[in-house]
Amino acid sequence: MKVLALCLSILLLASNAFALRDEMQTSDPDKAITNRPMDRNYNLQSVQTAFDKAKGTESVQEWAYSPDTVYKLRLREWMHTSVVLPENENIVDFSLGDEGNFVFLPQPGEGNVFKFIVYGIMPGADTSLTVHGESGNIYPFYLRIDDHTSKFLPDLLVRLKDPRLKTFKSKKVAKLEEAAADPFAPKEQGTDVPDYLRTISNTPPSDWTFTYQIDPADSPIAPRQVFDDGIFTYFRFGSNGNMDRIGSLPVVWRVMDGHDALVNTRVEGEFLVAETINPNWTIRSGDKWVCARQTPAKR
Q1: Helical (H) or strand (E) element with 130
Q2: How far, in Å, CA of 130 to CA of 143, rounded?
Q3: Closest CA to 121 of 155, 76, 54, 176
């Protein structure tokens, strides 16, 4: 009898379990995520109904810049908010209070960075964001994250206006315009020289020659900079004082009477140094080549 009673109890428990499972599957099918066909044809139930009757302009804001204003941005989970700072501005620094629940993404443009994207991860959180502009303007923001049940629409596009910046020109834009005005100015060619090179060369940097044209400057094997100190020629391939990110260096040839001639080279920090000077150079790697030639200095 005890065995029979035990069997009946097990059958009763199993029956109740199956009944509970069937009830869960049939009463609310949208919550039964497991044991479903793998056709991904299910409703996430996370649509913000506040958008249903929206005109389409409510989530776009345009504000005048004021140094005494904190700009309130209403974010929403799973959505990005784009912020456009005044034209000609350039972002030089930012401070984000909560880097765990919020993300700040600058959007580089043609020489300027005056746009950024910000979004939140967990609804119910808030934080502060301070953006520093090259113009001297400081842009403080208050950020808050809503979920899809909010009756308030998020700010998806925000434009800040500052008429005073119409005549402002960032350093990046100024460099681009200067390079565009000079057809012989090679890409990214500059006169900045790492301090450690001053200990290598006995010639003062004021006597170095930087007027080299790199062609084509956008080649994957093109150096970032070419100059000479009157004794050696420096080909800048690396960065941060080293060649750590360079897979393999191309070979540098000196052009003499229309022919390429090998020269002794060595690596110094981020430079490939040719132990001579010459007005014309060929840089080769496999079937790729780049020319570097000295051009007349500006008067």
Answers
A1: strand 126-133
A2: 11
A3: 76
Sequence-distant (≥ 6) Cβ neighbours of residue 25 within 8 angstroms: 32, 35
Is the separation of the CB atoms in 143 and 104 below 8 Å?
A: no
> What residue spans of the chain are helical by DSSP H?
2-27, 171-181, 196-200
Q: What CA–CA distance (Å, rounded) separates 268 from 242? A: 8
Q: pLDDT tens across 156-209, in order?
A: 999 999 999 988 877 766 766 665 555 444 455 666 666 666 667 777 877 889
At which residue do the structure tokens 């998020």 appear?
154
Q: Would you state the structure tokens that stand for residue 226, as one six-digit string? A: 């070419």
Residue with tokens 């060619």, as numbered in its chain:
189
What CA–CA distances, in Å, run from 121 to 65, 100, 126, 155, 170? Answer: 28, 8, 11, 15, 33
pTM: 0.50
